[in-house]
């Protein structure tokens, strides 16, 4: 009988890694990093032998879905990687960035330990830039949406648009056991039907088994239209009172959505004499990839790219690559909008801008993404009066806006509606959620669908499908 064992994103949101074994073929779906409070688990052994894996399917290029792939390669994986072309391109820049951060963190810890004479006890970095290069020297097969790839006589996979980020997919796996044909769908991360930048989530069809994320299984989002209105209002209010705007943003998807809205504002003459800075080398690179892959974008943006009008560029926009350019933004005292990473203010250039602007009540800080417990962004939202950056105490006096409706994940209703588009589901397995989120989602699924069994997957539990 075929089995699926989850080695990550079971009872938690990060570390996605699910091993399907059917007829002796081992297919790994995602190999992500554990993040936040479970970060250390990324350094533990996988729980399986990487050299045994035949295929590695990547649903999309967020670090919690791809962040352990170089470790997998370093430890012996020599199979075939299958993903959309956009996912491979994005994965390359994301993993390079991750490796740089891992090395920087290692160097800081090593120097500190060296001063105490304890450098021998310092854990080696998870991987380095060479491991990232090795990853992309493996055999890579590009998947196209809705085109079946036969891996062998009794195993085939098909990618479908997940409406989450550039290149994202949910994956349908078909296999034969004896005389029986079976199907299992792995959702990866799913968005919803209508997205600002990428194509929307494709409907389901027929499957026996569904592995589905449950990140927002316990909640409903505000509508995207309402959120855009709130966002524009926050910008206009701030500029009108002579202040500047800081937007901590994730490099992938959220930044492009923000640029898309700011471009509209620019064209509507709502940003006259305003300078917009995209102050993140990673976000600049990611935006280039959105232009490189127009067919992954929704119809409106695809058309814009094909007609050679970059949908993410407008006359007020400045891209700041170098550290010097970034520091020079400090000279702009008013009419300035700064988009910088990291999205949860745990590092990156946004901290430098906080130093110069967070103390000023005329300025605004607009959060456009979820701030995880324990991050600086969350501390600010929770109302802290002071923060400390590089040992300097900074008063939090800027006006704080929190816009909640920009999520790249579907909410409870989106996911229930999506489940409803499938035929034939007998079993639903919940992954990629904290236990309270998965429990609430399980109750909601049971309430809406009578004849479906729902199970919250535990890490390393053998599920027979
Ligand atoms: Zn994701």
UniProtKB/TrEMBL annotation:
Organism: Sulfurovum sp. enrichment culture clone C5
Pfam families referenced in this protein's UniProt entry, alphabetically: Beta-Casp, Lactamase_B, RMMBL
InterPro entries according to UniProt: Beta_Casp (IPR022712), MBL (IPR050698), Metallo-B-lactamas (IPR001279), RibonucZ/Hydroxyglut_hydro (IPR036866), RMMBL (IPR011108)
Keywords noted in UniProt: Exonuclease, Hydrolase, Nuclease
CDD domains reported for this sequence: TTHA0252-CPSF-like_MBL-fold
Protein's UniProt keywords contain Cell membrane: no
Name listed for the protein in its UniProt record: Putative exonuclease of the beta-lactamase fold involved in RNA processing
Superkingdom: Bacteria
SUPFAM superfamilies noted in UniProt: Metallo-hydrolase/oxidoreductase
GO molecular function per UniProt: exonuclease activity; RNA endonuclease activity
The Metallo-beta-lactamase domain, residue ranges: 14-235
Keyword Hydrolase: yes
Beta-Casp domain residues: 255-380
């Amino acid at each position: 009988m075929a089995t699926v064992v989850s080695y990550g994103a079971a009872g938690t949101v990060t570390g996605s890694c699910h091993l399907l074994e059917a007829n002796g073929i081992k297919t790994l779906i995602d190999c992500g990093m554990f993040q936040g409070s479970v970060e250390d688990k990324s350094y533990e052994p996988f729980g399986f032998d990487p050299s045994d894996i035949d295929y590695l399917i990547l649903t999309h290029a967020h670090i919690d879905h791809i962040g352990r792939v170089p470790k997998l390669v370093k430890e012996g994986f020599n199979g075939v990687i299958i993903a959309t072309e956009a996912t491979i391109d994005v994965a390359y820049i994301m993993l390079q960035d991750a490796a740089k951060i891992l090395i920087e963190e290692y160097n800081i810890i090593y120097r500190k330990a060296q001063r105490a004479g304890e450098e021998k006890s310092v854990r080696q970095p998870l991987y380095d830039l060479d491991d990232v290069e090795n990853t992309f020297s493996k055999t890579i097969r590009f998947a196209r949406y809705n085109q079946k790839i036969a891996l062998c006589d009794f195993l085939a996979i098909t990618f479908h648009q997940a409406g989450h980020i550039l290149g994202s997919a949910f994956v349908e796996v078909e296999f034969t056991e004896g005389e029986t044909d079976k199907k299992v769908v792995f959702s990866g991360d799913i968005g919803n039907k209508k997205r600002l930048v990428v194509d929307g989530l494709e409907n389901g069809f027929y499957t026996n088994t569904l592995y589905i994320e449950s990140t927002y299984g316990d909640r409903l989002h505000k509508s995207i239209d309402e959120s855009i209105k709130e966002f524009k209002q926050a910008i206009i209010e701030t500029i009108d009172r002579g202040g500047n705007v800081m937007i901590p943003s994730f490099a992938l998807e959220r930044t492009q959505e923000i640029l898309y809205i700011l471009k509209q504002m620019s064209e509507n003459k709502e940003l006259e004499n305003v300078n917009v800075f995209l102050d993140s080398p990673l976000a600049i690179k990611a935006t280039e990839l959105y232009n490189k892959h127009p067919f992954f974008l929704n119809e409106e943006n695809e058309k814009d790219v094909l007609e050679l009008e970059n949908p993410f560029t407008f006359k007020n926009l400045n891209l700041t690559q170098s550290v010097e350019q970034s520091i020079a933004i400090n000279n702009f005292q008013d009419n300035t909008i700064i988009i910088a990473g990291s999205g949860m203010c745990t590092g990156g250039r946004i901290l430098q801008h906080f130093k110069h602007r967070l103390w000023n009540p005329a300025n605004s800080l607009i959060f456009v993404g979820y701030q995880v417990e324990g991050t600086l962004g969350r501390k600010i939202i929770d109302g802290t009066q002071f923060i400390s950056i590089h040992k300097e105490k900074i008063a939090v006096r800027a006006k704080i806006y929190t816009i909640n409706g920009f999520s790249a994940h579907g909410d409870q209703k989106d996911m229930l509606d999506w489940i409803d588009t499938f035929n034939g589901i007998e079993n639903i397995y919940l992954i990629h959620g904290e236990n309270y989120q998965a429990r609430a989602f399980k109750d909601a699924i049971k309430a809406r669908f009578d004849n479906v069994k729902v199970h919250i997957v535990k890490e390393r539990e053998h599920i027979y499908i």
